[in-house]
Amino acid sequence: MLINIDLYTVVIPILVTIAIAVTLFYVTSKDLRNIMASTVSRRISEYTTLKCPTCGYVKVREFRPGDYVGKVEEEKCPNDGSNLVIMGISKEASINQ
Ligand SMILES: [Zn+2]
Predict the structure, then answer these.
(1) Does pTM surpass 0.85?
(2) Distance 44 CA to ligand 1 centre (A)
(3) CA–CA separation, 12 vs 86, rounded Å?
(4) Which residues partner with 42 through β-bridges?
(5) Contact at 8 Å (CB) between 80 and 51?
């Protein structure tokens, strides 16, 4: 056999090249994500989830200062007139283009 693959002169340089390529790809994609995050304008909205303790009616509205989980709202349930209770406050990021 004339073909003699030398592990140290053929395989290792290929592995090193792959390792460098993967590292470069990883670093570049990380940079791209940072660039995307800084250039695309993002708007983070906070939402308050209200729930009727009687029938389970759920309503989501924009967060207002002073909202906290467990707070009894002035707002009434459209089904039975019970006061709605704040069940949760969540943040949602929307990307504006
Ligand atoms: Zn209700």
Answers:
(1) no
(2) 30
(3) 61
(4) 95
(5) no
CA 87–ligand 1 middle distance (angstroms): 14
Tens place of pLDDT per residue across the chain (97 aa): 556 667 778 888 899 999 999 999 988 888 777 777 766 555 678 999 999 999 999 999 999 999 999 999 999 999 999 999 999 999 876 665 5
What one-character DSSP code corresponds to residue 71? P
Tell me the β-bridge partners of 50: 59, 86
Residue 89: name the closest of 55, 54, 79, 66 by CA.
66
Could you tell me how far CA 95 lies from the centroid of its own chain? 11
How many angstroms separate the CA atoms of 5 and 7, rounded? 6
Q: How far is the CA of 85 from the centre of ligand 1 (A)?
A: 10
